[in-house]
Amino acid sequence: MSFREGTMSTAIEVENLVVRRGKRAVLDGFFCAVPQGSVTGLLGPSGSGKTTLMRAIVGVQTVVSGRVTVLGHPAGSVPLRRRIGYVTQAPSVYADLTVAENARYFAALHRLTAADADGAVDAVGLSGHAGQLVANLSGGQRSRASLACAIVSRPEVLVLDEPTVGQDPVLRDELWGHFRRLAADGATVLVSSHVMDEANRCDRLLLIRDGALIADDTPEAVKRSAGTGDLDQAFLTLIKRQELAAA
Prior knowledge:
Pfam families: ABC_tran (PF00005)
Organism: Actinoplanes couchii
Protein name: Multidrug ABC transporter ATP-binding protein
GO molecular function, one term: ATP binding
Domain ABC transporter: 12-235
Structural class: alpha/beta
């Protein structure tokens, strides 16, 4: 697959973003930037604000204040509708259609061919299940069907909310290989996870905890900053530093 070429070095910019749920601030004055043509990992424990940030980037999250810009446009604006792909944690495909029918439906929305749809299904390792109803797939297979529908349009920005959950190690490795190929073709891939062993596969990391960004750098730089060669330990060290600074 090939992607339309962009001209900006930064694909996503988040500035002073505030999101509240009730009286609680999920994100409070949040800043970050995601380089174009990269695989950026958004990592942190459950409840840290990862999904909320991704929803804001896609443009489906109600925000109190701040600015989110994607490919030079406000998040959620009309020019981005065909340029951004989003895969939620819950599979977003039609259960009463086959894998191939789902992919071909989304391809048709973008005036693409059945061959494009079949290529996306093959890319996520589901060509052997293309004729199966989504309702009869395993949870991991449904997640991959959702991914096929998201990548069929060749989006310039692909936002993936924990796409490897429920996948076996072989399939997880294949998916990460595909993410890297997408980035090599010019796409910007933002992947959330709470599994630190996946962080080393990224070009850059955004480590988030309790709605605050505690690191924004390459995996190697994050480990050097924490004085350890282990990312799990690095994350814990950075958390302790944050707590001491706030005390």
